[in-house]
Write a structure and sequence with these properties.
Layout lengths: L1 H14 L1 H7 L4 H29 L3 H18 L5 H15 L1 H17 L3 H26 L4 H16 L19 H4 L2 H30 L4 H25 L5 H19 L5 H7 L3 H19 L5 H30 L2 H39 L1
Helix pairs in contact: 1-7, 1-8, 3-5, 3-6, 3-15, 4-5, 4-6, 4-8, 6-15, 7-11, 10-15, 10-16, 11-13, 11-14, 12-14, 12-16, 14-15, 15-16
Length: 383
């Protein structure tokens, strides 16, 4: 229920915030700036809250605290019309909002490890909540206007806060506090840094679609219901992929699987760069299943395999900083510039090129990893 409620909020922020700000009279560049301040703040906030969670050995209490802050800041955001003040308030809102995904995933991973369940069996409910909100909220906004966004955001955050009180921490209070000096050799190693840089390249492409899909559809003549349907299609398409990966994903190597999802991203955004009919966007969004569905699950599994449980929240925070913070900042600036100075289609063409670069990166990493494994086996054989 918590995942359903939380991702309903994500659906509103991702799908309908741009339309709300546009209804308030802000330009595309201003909307891009409002979205870029979030990832910029998120770089620090993800790391801060992740370290706090690991240091005090609690995810639940941190979630409750940031949801209270998020609800307060959201209320203030909707009370402001001045762009300068709104930038500050959106920065404060994202300080509390951006760590939600990494902390929720940390709690799910720790719970899955304790109970023997899979991460995907928890995360799939987020997709269900997102799909429901994208469909139903899109219809409501079409009927009642962008002003209803205020009620939807505040309502879903309040529900998440209420549900968070019933969550259970997956860590024992007696567990020794982690020594963070043990984390540094892992995250500073060359393979890990190369992996995160490749994730960043692919994430920039993904975040361009997240940030500008609604405006792209509006440019094509679509209304709010088509925006909602396109996001619903992408969210629903994740569900079977999460179930399949939870059952069979452990049998596949992470890096080749990520190369496949990057190739699907490249094809998906290439098609978006050519489309003129908004109805076709809904069909193309179904490719979200093999692109983002594989990407999210496999990246988390890879990080889980190299980062110990005592650093779980910090490890997830580093991933969130990369794919949400840095990528969100770069995609907001680059995507906004391409959208305005060239065209939305040119923006998607650039996203397709970045996805191809990401595919090559994962293939090179896989080749180097395989060569290192073969060399290690040969050395063991000689001994």
């Amino acid at each position: 229920m918590f995942y359903v409620s939380f991702f309903m909020t994500v659906a509103v922020i991702t799908s309908y915030f741009p339309l709300y700000f546009q209804s308030k009279g802000f330009s595309t560049i201003q909307i891009g700036l409002l979205y870029s301040v979030g990832p910029m703040i998120g770089i620090a906030s993800n790391l801060f809250w992740g370290v706090m969670s690991d240091r005090f050995r609690t995810v639940k209490k941190v979630l409750v605290l940031i949801l209270i802050g998020q609800l307060t800041m959201a209320f203030l955001v909707f009370r402001s019309d001045a762009f300068g003040l709104l930038m500050l308030l959106m920065g404060a809102f994202f300080f509390f909002q951006t760590p939600m995904t990494s902390l929720s995933d940390s709690l799910s991973l720790l719970t899955a490890s304790r109970t023997g369940k899979s991460y995907a069996s928890f995360r799939v409910w987020g997709s269900i909540g997102f799909a429901f909100a994208a469909l139903v909220f899109g219809q409501l906004l079409r009927s009642y206007g962008a002003g209803l966004t205020v009620v939807l955001v505040l309502g879903t955050i309040f529900c998440s806060l209420a549900l968070s009180l019933f969550l259970k921490d997956a860590r024992e209070a007696g567990v020794k506090k982690p020594d963070f000096s043990g984390l540094m050799p892992i995250i500073s190693s060359r393979p890990f840094v190369a992996f995160m840089l490749t994730v960043l390249v692919l994430s920039v492409a993904h975040r361009m679609n997240d940030g500008f899909l609604a405006l792209f559809l509006q440019r094509l003549g679509a209304d709010a219901s088509i925006v909602g349907n396109s996001w619903m299609a992408s969210a629903l398409s994740e569900i079977p992929v999460f179930f399949l990966l939870s059952k069979y994903g452990h049998k596949l190597k992470e890096l080749p699987l990520l190369a496949v999802c990057a190739a699907m991203y490249a094809l998906r955004f290439l098609l978006m760069s050519q489309v003129e009919n908004p109805q076709w966007v809904i069909v193309i969004q179904l490719m979200h299943s093999v692109s983002f569905g594989i990407f999210l699950f496999t990246c988390i599994r890879y990080i889980q395999s190299v980062v110990p449980d005592q650093f779980r929240a910090s490890g997830q925070a580093l991933f969130a900083i990369t794919w949400s913070g840095l990528a969100g900042l770069l995609s907001g600036l680059l995507g906004g510039w391409l959208f305005n100075n060239w065209s939305p289609h040119a923006m998607y063409g650039a996203a397709s090129a970045l996805a191809l670069l990401g595919m090559l990166g994962f293939l090179v990493l896989h080749a180097k990893t395989r060569d290192s494994s073969l060399e290690a086996e040969m050395q063991r054989g000689e001994r």
